[in-house]
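It is worth pausing here to work through a concrete case rather than discussing structure prediction in the abstract. The textbook approach is simple: state the sequence, then state the predicted structure, then interpret. We follow exactly that order.
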Amino acid sequence: MIDQLSAQQAEQWHSVLAASLAHDLPGQPLPTLEQLTTPGLDSRRLFWLADEPDGTVSGAASLRLFDRRGQEHLAELELYVHPDWRRRGVGSRLLAQVVLAAQAENRRSLVAGVGDIEPGTSFCAARNFERVLTLRHLLLDLSEVDLEVADPAGYRLRSWAGTVPDELADAFATAKNAMNDMPTGDMDYGTQQWDAERVRAMAWVVADRGDTLLTAAALHGEVVAGFTEIVIRAGEQRRALQYDTVVVPAHRGHGLGRWLKTAMVRQLRAEHPGIVEIETDNADDNTHMIAVNERMGFREHRRAHTYQLKIS
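Step two, the predicted structure:
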């Protein structure tokens, strides 16, 4: 177990990840080294490398331990085995060490995101993981988006890059808490509580990775009625990633979701013309947001699942 990766270990971990993704999800953008090594918000990570007798690194795993109130029971697994070393017990050995560490940290649930492909799905099923959520990954071609969306009456648009402006921080945090009603299937997800300090800290994490965070919000008086967030990874030349999109319950039914997303597309075209597509994911049962995205032109390009292991 490694608390903090050295530069060499980070390169080894990243090389296993790169080989695994290239084999299983060709064309999928690769996370950067900074994204691997930058601490996440309200969490810490433990790492493992599987070394073979000849010095080859055959597998890599990490355990993200959430420390925030409402999710102290939860841990998140990432596990990759180099394609040349699969079906030799590497994944099983890594998983055993991860589970021991999760037990030592008094976690009751271990979750892992797995593409809807082999061997990940069968690996989880054979080791008592339960499939608790299915995600639909969607792609939007920005050149095909209809930007003619009427402004909703009584709302005004406010956009920013990076950290939320001070005068909106409290209202933005209140809107963030509406994420607690998002569909999570049967996952033992817990809850997140947001305040002004925490939303600022989230933006700093993104900045520390070298990524760009863009936010568009709908204001109703002094209230943040909804917002959408986009992240452009450091060095990315093509694809932006959708982060949270929220409409506060009291303001739903006015078309704010599509209006905000369209405003973000307009901003990307003007300020980041090299970005030509957005990737988002929605829980399979989040029918409302899927409908909003499909009306904009998002189309499904793959599926993934969240698996969960109950830890005794």
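Step three, interpretation. The helical segments are 7-24, 33-37, 90-104, 120-125, 169-176, 196-208, 256-271, 287-296. The two ends are 21 Å apart (CA to CA).
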